[in-house]
Amino acid sequence: MEVQPAPVAPAASTAASPQAAAAGDTPARRWWRRWGWLLRWAGTGLGVAYLIAVVDIDSLSGALAKTSIGTVLVALAAISSSLVVGAVRWRALMTAYGASAPPPLATAVRLYFVAAFYNTYLPGGVAGDVVRGVVVRDSFRGGGTTEAIAVVFVERVLGLLGVFTLVAVGLVLVGPRLATTSTLWWLSAAGAGGAVAAVLMLPLGRQVAPYLPRRLAAIAWRLPVVSRRRCFAAAALLSLVTQLMTTLTGWLFLREVHPVATFSDALFIVPLAAATGFLPITVAGLGAREAVFVNLCGQLLGMSAGDGLAASLMIWATTLMTGVFGGILQMIRPLSQPVPTAQP
Fold first, then answer.
1. Residue 15: its pLDDT value, please?
2. What confidence category does residue 19 fall into, taking pLDDT thresholds of 50, 70 and 90?
3. Residue 305 belongs to domain spanning
4. CA angle at residue 156 from 137 to 244, to 5 degrees?
5. Would 161 be classed as within a structural domain?
6. In the predicted model, what is the mean pLDDT of residues 323-334?
7. Domain assignment of residue 21, yes or no
8. Domains of the chain: total
9. d(CA 323, CA 85)
10. Is residue 28 part of a domain?
11. Is residue 160 a part of any domain in this protein?
12. Within its chain, how far is the Cα of 214 from the centroid?
């Protein structure tokens, strides 16, 4: 299917020009670039301080000792499978946005694991995504770096949609067992609503750009145009699959330390704790993620803080181990080597 060239933003439209975006650099944004790192570390420090205050070390050690090697291996398989599904989603999005020669599936999987390594072990949690976007730029006509990076950005938004969709489903399932749910309903509704709005806007970015505020319009004009909407819809569904696999990992560890924990419990706890990773006031959700996990396990399941923290740490450890595998793949075949592309 031939992809029609995307319309170009009017030259006279200052709202849609990169210069306008640069001119919109406000004192608040400059302050955030200079001091935001301090706020993020402060947020992480508060989460860690809360955990130190509520967690008993002996309880934590005992809970960690309950975890079997078999459970760790199954959890590793689940997380690895979620990355494979993520690679399939990535290729579907590249096709949706008009990639003429996306990388073969095996190459996409390798790049996805390597990106997970960078995201896990480098500050910011996005370095790997940016790198894999750059290395597949030849998949688009003319070496479209902008299109390749935009596809990765769309992936992140779809992931956010998957997280908040599962939070809403989990809240329906376990809500009657919670003392209060009004705040959680508002948070999940706001998160899911924002993600849905972003997902709906992304395929129509350039069409709605004239009606957006200046800064958002400047971004919308740069978005590539969706040429295959079925591929886009498939990618959105695959985002739910990846989040379900992460939830399965959390349930495995919850069940180890608290055998009566159900998958419905994990469907509420794991995505809601994972959503803290999107907060700009922590370092990749560290500290806050564990604090939320411990608090939710206590409210919903009556678990001790040590048991809840043990389950959360095992989920994190599984992610770290999966990242190591990506690092090994990077050593075997560095990203500096040319990336093969599939036939159009």
1. 38
2. very low
3. 46-332
4. 125
5. yes
6. 87
7. no
8. 1
9. 16
10. no
11. yes
12. 27
